[in-house]
TrEMBL record:
It holds the Pfam family UvrD-helicase. It catalyses: ATP + H2O = ADP + phosphate + H(+); Couples ATP hydrolysis with the unwinding of duplex DNA by translocating in the 3'-5' direction. Has both ATPase and helicase activities. Unwinds DNA duplexes with 3' to 5' polarity with respect to the bound strand and initiates unwinding most effectively when a single-stranded region is present. Involved in the post-incision events of nucleotide excision repair and methyl-directed mismatch repair. Keywords: ATP-binding, DNA-binding, Helicase, Hydrolase, Isomerase, Nucleotide-binding. It comes from the Bacteria. It comes from Rhodospirillum rubrum (strain ATCC 11170 / ATH 1.1.1 / DSM 467 / LMG 4362 / NCIMB 8255 / S1). Gene3D superfamilies: 1.10.10.160, P-loop containing nucleotide triphosphate hydrolases, PCRA, domain 4. The keyword Isomerase applies. Its EC number is 5.6.2.4. This is DNA 3'-5' helicase. Residues 10-291 form the UvrD-like helicase ATP-binding domain. ATP binds at residues 31-38. Residues 292-561 form the UvrD-like helicase C-terminal domain. The keyword Hydrolase applies.
């Protein structure tokens, strides 16, 4: 580019240009929505690769979503070519996984470890709570999981949880011990949860300074988008990596901090200047995205927040004011969905692209009404961030099969599919395996391999289990030779799982069979089963085919960083938005976060924003009268046009004024109800189970038994040991005769 200006600098304003060309030393870009922060970061990546003496893999770039990572890679690729492929670019999670795939052994993870989703995490914790005899109605696994996640977000291992932490009180003060057990159990099943992806990295960095040194030497430059939403663990991770050279550039906007519920701390922005003294701080003021009208609406709204670093957005000089922000009151949710979809169709007929339109909601459940209406109207749409497809029961079952093939120690997958389709391995057999697994601290698969050599299971169950293990062994040996889609087809066929749904007479079975077929096609795009499984666990935001022109439905949280010509913002009602939780809880702060979320929503719009609220909403078969959101009143009246067509304004419409009461469940986590989910075998130990329960925790203090010893077995009663071999025993039972049993299931008889 001698002489001529490189393409990534073209059109940048002086402040943006400074942020791009100041490649060395710490840089903080703190600016409002749409001021070009992400664009600057992308240009900076190109600038570094083109002008600094580094190789692409010596640059680390962090984005908030996988989608944002993809976009940045594509844009940088367009500017500087295929070099962009090799940059370490991704979300914190994806980058953490990448490091753990190399160094996981340092924290006890074996190759091919599984990344658990939220469902699996809960299941695992629930098992621990039940085994500990904790009342899971009072101390829900969800609450426990929330605590563990919060600690992980703060970078705290069980040992490090501070004495005064209120969370310790959970389960009668046993929270930290449960956290510890949860981590041990993850290690046994060779799995990590999302929080671990960074926490394990932090552990490795602290315990193995040589590994940290290698990485911080390798990454000459670090770039971070959406910095306002980093949590403490992420912050520590960045700081450890960047401290040596200090070549770190973070961009963010305190007004868009919307993830404090996931441990994000705006304080990280303030800490930046302290940790990286002499940082260049760049402020961008000109907004390139939205019309002056939309900016005025957004700025007017966010001014109601007190806790701000304070900055205002400026529109471009000479920009047309643009359309007023429309606020529309409607009768009920159905009418609201109808109006939105009518508008979408009208715009489409007028030549607007569907890709330029989005419906942004406060909570995931709100998309349903719009989805139904869009389906009815035949308008293509995608739900971003909701992972519709991969969350379906049959898909999750199929993936559990694949996980087990890839990683036989994945006990959660084993548990999910061991009796799907029915193989005559009922609850009792599964319980036996689970006990064996807990007692010996081995995975269910290994417990199963042991069990088929003994008489612990009924002959029929043993036969079924042996057949299942044989199948698994065969699929596993095929896994290397076969393409992942073929392998998946084979597994679904030979396991009888596909056939199970084919024979099912229920109305949705056909759809499930189609979904399973779609899964097999989806696998075509992957080189290996491992790559696919990683994709499933990480990528939850690329639902629709990127090429298809479609309306986007998503939550406000998922919309961060994106932009659309037309943005619909439905459901602006008190208790929906602001969310009821924010009104109940720690008042002012939570409310300010809701307002930031509204600000994020409005600033996604390039040309127009249409806000709506309804007078009546149906919530779980009950009608509720609704009040317009306070945020509506906070919009500067001069930029708002009230659409009174529906006559809800001033009509005092009270609808069906039910007393509030059922809101608590709004948007609460649903249970998938799949596999073992609901019909889970009782895992609370029976009365006679105390011995294994107490022995279980240490795992290795089982009594060593010798031939001639008298023993007692829960099922077969008293007997005499004939032979002992690697945890398995041959015993002459007084009543049942000679049997092979698993060592953990017998107690030495007293006296
Ligand atoms: P957010 O806070 O919402 O993430 P942002 O600060 O990251 O916003 P970008 O998404 O980078 O902003 O930019 C917003 C829009 O403005 C994009 O369409 C971008 O291409 C455009 N833009 C940014 N800088 C310029 C510029 N100098 N000239 C023209 N357009 C620009
Ligand atoms: Mg951005």
């Amino acid at each position: 580019f001698q002489g001529a200006e490189p393409p990534w600098l073209a059109g940048l304003n002086p402040e943006q240009r400074a942020a791009v060309t100041t490649t060395d030393g710490p840089v903080l870009v703190l600016s409002g929505a749409g001021t070009g922060k992400t664009r600057v970061l992308t240009a900076r990546l190109a600038q570094i690769l083109a002008t600094r003496p580094v190789r692409p893999w010596q640059v680390l770039a962090v984005t908030f979503t996988n989608r944002a990572a993809r976009e940045m890679r594509e844009r940088a690729g367009a500017m500087i070519g295929p070099m962009a492929e090799q940059v370490w670019l991704g979300t914190f999670h994806a980058l953490g996984v990448r490091m753990l795939r190399r160094h996981g052994d340092l924290v006890g993870l074996r190759s091919g470890f599984t990344i658990l989703d939220a469902d699996d995490q809960l299941r695992l914790l629930k098992q621990i709570l039940e085994a500990e005899g904790i009342d899971t109605k009072k101390w829900t696994p969800q609450a426990g999981m929330g605590l563990i996640q919060r600690w992980k977000d703060k970078g705290l291992l069980p040992e490090a949880v501070p004495a005064g932490d209120g969370g310790r009180e959970y389960a009668g003060g046993r929270a930290v011990d449960l956290y510890k057990q949860y981590q041990q159990r993850l290690a046994v099943v060779n799995a990590a949860d999302f929080g671990d992806l960074l926490l394990h990295c932090l552990t490795i960095f602290t315990k193995h300074p040589d590994v940290l040194a290698d990485y911080s030497k390798m990454f000459h430059y670090i770039l971070v988008d959406e910095y306002q939403d980093t949590n403490v663990a992420q912050y520590l991770w960045l700081r450890l990596l960047a401290r040596g050279h200090g070549n770190i550039c973070c961009v963010g906007d305190d007004d868009q901090s919307i993830y404090s519920w996931r441990g994000a701390e705006v304080g990280n922005i303030l800490r930046f200047e302290a940790d990286f003294p002499g940082a260049t701080v760049v402020r961008l003021e000109r907004n390139y995205r939205s019309t002056p009208t939309i900016l005025a609406a957004a700025s007017g709204l966010i001014r109601h927040n007190k806790g701000r670093l304070g900055k205002d957005l400026r529109a471009g000089e000479g920009d047309e004011a643009g359309d007023a922000v429309i606020v529309r009151g409607l009768w009920d949710g159905e009418e609201e969905a109808r109006r939105v979809v009518d508008d979408i169709e009208t715009r489409q007929r007028a030549g607007d692209r569907l890709n330029g339109m989005a419906v942004l909601v406060r909570a995931g459940f709100q998309t349903r009404a719009f989805e139904e209406r869009l389906i009815l109207a035949g308008v293509p749409y995608r739900v971003v961030g909701g992972a519709r497809f991969y969350e379906r029961q049959e898909i999750r079952d199929a993936i559990a099969y694949l996980r087990l093939v890839a990683q036989p120690d994945d006990s959660l997958a084993f548990e999910r599919i061991i009796n799907l389709p029915r193989r005559g391995l009922g609850d009792a057999s599964l319980q036996t395996l689970m006990r064996a697994s807990r007692m010996a601290s081995i995975s269910l698969m290994r417990a199963a391999r042991e069990a088929i050599e003994t008489d612990e299971l009924r002959p029929q169950a043993r036969k079924a289990l042996r057949a299942f293990l044989d199948d698994m062994g065969r699929w596993r040996s095929l896994a290397d030779a076969m393409a992942p889609d073929e392998l998946c087809g084979t597994v679904l066929d030979e396991s009888g799982y596909l056939e199970m749904w084919r024979k099912d007479k229920s109305p949705d079975a056909q759809g499930r069979v189609e979904n399973l077929k779609e899964l097999v096609s989806a696998l075509k795009e992957f080189e290996s089963l491992g790559a696919f499984l990683e994709h499933v666990s990480l990528v939850m935001d690329n639902e629709a085919r990127a090429t298809e022109d479609a309306v986007t439905l998503m939550t406000l949280h998922a919309a961060k960083g994106l932009e659309f010509d037309t943005v619909f913002l439905p459901g602006w009602e008190e208790e929906i938005f602001p969310h009821r939780r924010a009104l109940d809880e720690n008042g002012a702060e939570a409310l300010e976060e809701e307002r930031r979320l509204a600000y994020v929503g409005l600033t996604r719009a390039r040309k127009r924003a249409i806000i709506s609220f309804v007078a009546n909403r149906r919530v779980y078969n009950e009608w509720r009268a609704c009040l317009p959101s306070r945020f509506i009143d906070e919009l500067p009246p001069e930029v708002v046009e009230r659409d009174s067509a529906s006559g809800v304004y001033g009509s005092g419409a009270q609808g069906y004024a039910d007393a509030p009461g059922g809101w608590g469940r709004l948007g609460g986590p649903g249970s998938w109800g799949g596999g073992w989910g609901n019909a889970a075998p009782a895992r609370v130990p029976a009365a006679g189970d105390t011995p294994w329960q107490t022995r279980d925790r240490s795992g290795d203090d089982q009594p060593s038994l010798r031939p001639g010893d008298r023993v007692f077995h829960d099922k077969f009663g008293g007997g005499t040991v004939l032979a002992a071999d690697q945890g398995r025993l041959e015993i002459d039972f007084d009543k049942a005769g000679i049997k092979k049993v698993m060592g953990g299931f017998v107690r030495k008889a007293e006296g």
